[in-house]
């Protein structure tokens, strides 16, 4: 069996290789992938990356939005988180372990670089908050970033920050 899988990997191109690995992961229950940091990793925002054609939502953390920011402070903090994530990912070999998908179809994964859990490091470094599900938790994170009158709609109600 191993020889057949190896032969398939050797004969296939990179995308086919990833499909074979993904198929094996489905049967074993987990997927660990290693990639060299740099050219093949795109930073979408502070908690989402694109690696080898796969959009990955880093588990455990939430960073400020950069695309649909609800206040100027959130945008500034989101850009800082994005830059911090880039510096972490550039510091070594990036690995991730997939654990399902979110409602947007992104792969949920624990991401590591050089053995360091990226999500936990971002939280320790103060550029991310621990992710908690639900509207109340989302509202609390938003108010932390945008002030007490911030709402969950997509408008900038408070541009003054905290």
Commentary on this structure:
There is one protein chain. The chain has 162 residues and is α+β, with helices and mostly antiparallel strands. Helices cover 38% and strands 26% of the residues. The chain contains five helices and nine strands, in the order ααβββββαβββαβα. It has helices spanning 2-11, 14-28, 72-89, 118-124, 135-146, and strands spanning 31-36, 41-45, 48-51, 54-58, 61-62, 93-101, 107-113, 116-117, 129-130. The strands form two sheets. Strands 1, 2, 3, 4, 6, 7 and 8 form a seven-stranded mixed beta sheet that branches. A two-stranded antiparallel ribbon has the order 5-9. A hairpin with a 2-residue loop joins β7 and β8. The longest helix has 18 residues, at 72-89. It starts with a helix and ends in a 16-residue tail after the last helix. Mean pLDDT is 77; it is low at 1-30 and 156-162.
Features:
single chain, 162 residues, 9 strands, 38% helix, disordered C terminus
**Which of globular, elongated, flat, extended, rod-shaped describes the shape?**
globular
Low-confidence stretches are: 1-30, 156-162
Main beta sheet: 7 strands, mixed
> What portion of the residues fall into strands of 2 or more residues?
25-35%
> What oligomeric state do the depicted chains represent?
single chain
Order of helices and strands: HHEEEEEHEEEHEH
Total helical segments = 5
Radius of gyration: 18 Å
Terminal Cα span: 58 Å
Helix percentage: 25-40%
Give average pLDDT, whole number.
Answer: 77
* Helix/sheet category: alpha+beta
Number of strands: 9
